[in-house]
Amino acid sequence: MTASRAAAERAEALRKEIERHSSAYYVHDQHTIPDAEYDRLFRELEALEEEYPELASLDSPTQRVGGKPLSGFATIRHDVPMGSIRNIAYVEPGSKANLYDERAAIQFDADIRKKLKLTDRDLPVEYTAELKFDGLAISLRYEQGVLVRAATRGDGMTGEDVTLNARTIRDIPLRLVGRNIPFVLDVRGEVYMLWADFEKYNTSARLRGEDTLMNPRNAAAGGIRQLDPSISARRSLRFFAYGIGSSQGWVVPSNHSDLLDALASFGLPVSSCRKVVVGVKGLMSFYREIAGKRPTLGFDVDGVVYKVNSLAIQTALDVDNTKKHPDWAAAHKFLPQEVSTKVEDIEVQVGRTGALTPVARLAPVIVGGVEVSNATLHNEDQIRRKDIRKGDTVIVRRAGDVIPEVVAVVLDRRPPGTKQFQMPSTCPICGSKVIKVVKEQRLKTKESRQKEEAVLRCIGGLACPAQAKEALIHFASRRAMDIDGLGEKLIDQLVDQGLAKNPADLYSLKGSELSRLDRMGEISASNLVKSIETSKNSSLSRLIFALGIPNVGEETAKDIVKAFGRLDFIIDARPEVLVFVPNVGKDTATPVYAFFSDGHNRQVVDRLRQAGVNWVESPITIRASFAELIARLDIKKIGAKRAEQLASHFQTISRLVDADLSELTRTLDSETAARSVSEHISEIGVRQRLLDVEAQLIDFGMHWTNQPATAVRAPGGALVGKTLVLTGTLSSLSRDAAKQMIEAAGGRVTGSVSPKTDYVVVGDDPGQKYQEALELGIRTLSKDELLRIVEGAGQQTLSFDDEH
DNA sequence: ACGCCTCGAGTTCT
DNA sequence: CTCGAGGCGT
Question: Pick from A8, A264, A392, A500: CA 20 to 30 A from residue A226's CA?
């Protein structure tokens, strides 16, 4: 068969591109293309050369195994070439995509059995299964047990002499130990870097203003190939041995697993993550096991390696050793976690708070086994920084194992004529203006500096359909009013058909109106009406949270409700009063006040109350302190101490605001301070405002006291005052249920582990919070231990909540 | 003014 | 889960 001109051109193009990437990668430590993509190009070229052998030229990248040596190192010829292992991938029949799933193991095993001419009746083949480390392969030569030479793989035949650098690696013994040490031993293994060391290195590099390293693999590969061994030493590299090249003066073990044991017995580090397995089932279960352990290994592993265990069978399979890869071994890679794809469009979404969020619509790709077609781009700055444009090819990764993230643009593939992305100047949904909210930064400098928020916001409020929808979704959500069956799709329809614009409308929906909607029968309609009805029995704090007031989440809603007890107080509360609520400052008080001052919102809330969304009202549990109120006014020269003096002298606001300068001076013992107070009070509106605040506090039945606010309630329970953190899944106990239980026992549940945490409750498959707990020496509890503590404390925990 | 804790808010897919 | 920023103690 003759190569067509098209094939020849394609091969040439592939060669050029592969050369470019591999030079960037190996020579300059730069990452210009995701690994999976590089593999794909490489395999395409291999396939072409296999089909048309006359295209295979000697200078083709497929003829080389590693990168080109950097100048500056002596070259070393390997006694036994350092080959590489072939990658196996399962290809779905009829699909071009490589699915690197466990089925690849089936083909590998079948291949071996066929070459060995085994039939179904023969015994399964024995393999060793090991980790495929993601670092740099090197060879260590020991003569009479002493390390004499270390070399990189290089092109497989010759590599670079990195002996000095290898000596800085603590894992690498300078002298072998144990009995029966070979006269000559050429150890093969991988230099790698632990994640923790990688982070440490980058943190200190950042502090020094030096360049940071891209990833642990490049750090290891670059680190071992530094001309200055002290640079190499700074990277705290590690080493694992996984095989040998040549050896003299010993009896080589008869299978691979014994060989690894022997290496370990010489004092060489050999990973304990290895197994002797039998047949294809064994291969697959090892693959699955490591895929699961991967996040906890502490270093990068990009797959597993299978080797026929018996060295005799290896040799038998190796008769035709002219090939680049041995037949008796294979690398089974994990699903790629970084993949490239095209940005088909950049759209802008509008969230509940009006925030405009750009989202990349991607050509669907499989990342980590899941199809991804959207990725958030967060905000304008983010897009600018990465310069992501419509039409670009980008590298996508699943960050934190879940949420897709655009890592970088592959600039080489940018088509001509792309334009920088521009955020719209009006809301894409309702056309209202969009603004960047300006935040005042209270700085002591002369000009109170102003800082813009990073996000653009639509000012349309609930008049904007996007925000109205999001507000309803939030209102109905599980943690808010928990209206079962009212999901996003349904809310879309309700808003689009004008049946509901705000939460209050939900409570007047008729079953007959609902059953006319898409995918709604009479039964589901009446179920929905029922769950809307049920939601009236949730709780006041859920309602406050459900309203979606900026800066008021679940916890803050609880704090506010604890303080005021009843809805009408919350509605009327002035910001000066709201700040008496623990954990509520100006930035929370202002939005709350603004929310309830808005006529439209007020109307919605009134309608909700009329519909019966209301609760048994209970007394107030905070004390307002007059001194604190004065201190918070931020009057110049008046700090906590003088506020105290004013409070104890005047006792009430009415008397303070009418005080003359001489009385103030006498009280404070300072004329300038007194003047400052009187100037503040005479500012327009201040006097009236203070009187209003006082009137309100009296209305609410708050006690005026100069004592600091006191804790009102000392609840019983086994976990009083304890802070707990949950991690992992607690079988048969949902997170929410666990949280409720802990709170009922007087404890608190927070999201992250800190020195203040008392216990970490560890479930199955825990996250890194477990690690943090161990590092900080915090006590951990199993689910059962938690239950025992909570239940052991008995009944008093159950009844405490209703002292109001 | 600074730093430590937490909370709020946004986000994807099954 | 992660990031940013509010609350609060020092």
Answer: A264
Between CA A522 and CA A528 the distance in angstroms is 10
User: Which domain CATH number covers A116?
Assistant: 3.30.470.30
Q: Is residue A265 located within the same domain as residue A293?
A: yes
Tell whether A228 and A140 lie within a shared domain: yes
Q: State whether the beta carbon of A550 lies below 7 angstroms from any atom of strand C.
A: no
A68 given a catalytic annotation: no
**B9 C1' to A353 CA distance, Å:** 9
**Are A701 and A727 found together in one domain?**
no
How many domains is chain A built from? 5
Instruction: Establish whether the CB of A562 is closer than 7 Å to any nucleic acid atom in strand C.
Output: no
- Judged by C1' against the alpha carbon of A378, the nearest nucleotide is B10
- Whether the pLDDT of residue A116 is over 60: the answer is yes
**pLDDT cut 70: percent of chain A above it:** 85
Distance CA A284, CA A281 (A): 5
Alpha helices in A700-782 (DSSP H): 735-744, 768-776
Eight-class DSSP state of A487: -
Q: Are residues A165 and A38 in the same domain?
A: no
A287: pLDDT strictly greater than 50 = yes
Mark whether A214 and A312 lie in a shared domain.
yes
Residues A271 and A311 in one domain: yes
- C-alpha span between A503 and A572 (Å, rounded): 20
* Distance CA A551 to C1' C1 in A: 20
Most confident of A267-276, A529-538, A719-728: A267-276
Q: How far is CA A262 from the centre of its chain?
A: 41
Please check whether residue A346 lies inside any domain of the structure. Answer: no
Report the range of poorest mean pLDDT among A173-177, A473-477, A526-530, A777-781.
Answer: A777-781
Task: Kindly state whether residues A24 and A113 are assigned to the same domain.
Answer: no
Could you list the residue range(s) of the whole structural domain that residue A112 is in? 103-333
Helices A586-597/A599-610 angle, 10° precision: 70
Tell me how far apart the alpha carbons of residues A797 and A795 are, in angstroms, rounded to a whole number.
5
Strand B bases with any atom < 7 A from protein Cβ: 1, 4-14
Q: Of residues A132, A307, A769, A783, which has the active-site annotation?
A: A132
Q: Which of residues 722-781 of A touch strand C (CB under 7 A)?
A: 727, 751-752, 767-769
Model confidence at A714: pLDDT above 50: no
The reply to whether A506 and A592 lie within a common domain is no
Residues A760 and A779: beta-carbon distance below 8 Å: yes
User: Would A653 be classed as within a structural domain?
Assistant: yes
- Residues within a 7 A CB radius of strand B: A 349, 351-353, 355, 357, 359, 370-376, 402-404, 442-445, 550-557, 583, 723, 748, 750-752, 754-757
- Is residue A55, in this structure, part of any structural domain at all? yes
Q: Name the nt closest to A584 by C-alpha to C1'.
A: C7
* Terminal CA-CA length for chain A: 90
d(CA A44, CA A17): 12
